[in-house]
Specification:
about 350 residues; five-stranded antiparallel β-sheet; two-stranded antiparallel sheet; mRNA processing
């Protein structure tokens, strides 16, 4: 479902709230401890929500992103198109959009859509352009660590569904988690969190109000963490969303390492394909230049040949001796002497 919403963007991005509503939210957040809406002058937007998502904060967020309704093109997409389809290093997803509180709509300089797997190639930054740190915070909140690809979110303070499976798990500590997605709580968690990308695994700690949600790609986990912080599911809870300290999957680390290699290979293949395309275009241009040069050279040779033949024909028509020289030669021609008989013949004498 997320892919359909992500690709169907042939419309301008919607303004999620007004500037007045955003100012009210910021004013309210600045007067409360731990709302995570402090204005960051460096990024010209709210800073990541790093300071206000502590466990003690139980205030429900006043806004929530709706991908199906809010996603659309912005000025950031125009920049991507202008760069011949390549993604600019400074094009990131809008943090306000993820939290459902961007008042700019299509005028926003950031993307209003779900991120793609390779949206941000720099492991030192998240999809919102924020710098990662060397390690996680003590409470596993914040932007995250650049030393680890974390696709799993810890989701706390869930109001679980009371069902037969819930009561059975509570009575039997050996069955205190659900990896199969069979409990109502697992289905609720998956339904809400799947809006932000493809989910690979959901584990619910039954009776403890805790779930672990593992996405297929880290970019979607980053988006979901901001989108679901202080939100509710089907009941009147206020979620506490963090990075998971450990991957709940038994083969999680090996699968992540394999995926990193796959992503790296795809990235390298894309770069090489771009280089090959560029080289092919350069070869084609060089070939056209050589053909054009050959045509020019052939035309030059033809012109030289034409002039040569004209010169040869012109020399053939030109007399070897001038008219004056010929007359001089005629004057030098010896005259034959006449005899006496020839003189007599002139007088009609026999």
């Amino acid at each position: 479902m997320s892919h359909g919403h992500n690709e169907r963007r042939a419309r301008p991005a919607r303004k999620q709230i007004s500037y007045g509503e955003l100012e009210e939210i910021r004013h309210h957040a600045e007067h409360m401890t731990g709302e995570g809406m402090i204005y960051n002058v460096w990024y010209n937007k709210m800073s990541g929500g790093d300071t206000g998502h502590g466990p003690e904060s139980k205030t429900r967020s006043k806004t929530r992103c709706d991908i199906a309704r809010d996603a659309g093109y912005t000025r950031a997409d125009m920049r991507i198109q202008a760069s011949a389809g390549g993604v600019s290093d400074t094009t990131y997803v809008c943090l306000f959009f993820a939290r459902g509180c961007c008042p700019k709509g299509e005028e926003c300089l950031y993307l209003h859509r779900l991120p793609r797997p390779y949206e941000v190639a720099d492991q030192g930054r998240d999809i919102f352009g924020r710098e990662k740190h060397g390690s996680y915070r003590d409470d596993m909140g914040g932007v995250g660590s650049m030393l680890r690809v974390n696709k799993t979110l810890y989701v706390g303070r869930i109001n679980e569904e009371t069902s037969l499976s819930f009561r059975r798990a509570a009575a039997n500590p050996a069955d205190n988690y659900d990896d199969t997605g069979s409990t109502p709580t697992s289905k609720i968690v998956r339904r809400h969190f799947s809006e932000w990308g493809d989910i690979e695994h959901v584990r619910v700690m039954v009776g403890r109000g805790i779930a672990f949600v593992t996405y297929k790609y880290e970019a979607n986990a980053q988006f979901a963490k901001e989108a679901m912080m202080h939100q509710t599911l089907d009941h009147d809870e206020v979620l506490n969303v963090r990075w998971a300290a450990e991957d709940p999957r038994s083969d999680g680390e090996a699968r992540d390492a394999a995926e990193l290699r796959e992503l790296a290979e795809k990235r390298i293949a894309e770069v090489e394909q771009t280089k090959r395309t560029s080289d092919d275009a350069e070869d084609e241009r060089a070939k056209r230049q050589r053909m054009l040069l050959s045509q020019q050279q052939m035309a030059q040779l033809d012109e030289e040949n034409r002039r040569g033949w004209e010169e040869i024909h012109g020399k053939a028509k030109t007399p070897i001796l001038s008219a004056q020289a010929l007359e001089s030669l005629k004057a030098l021609r010896p005259t034959r002497p006449t005899s006496a008989l020839e003189n007599l013949a002139a007088y009609d004498s026999d």
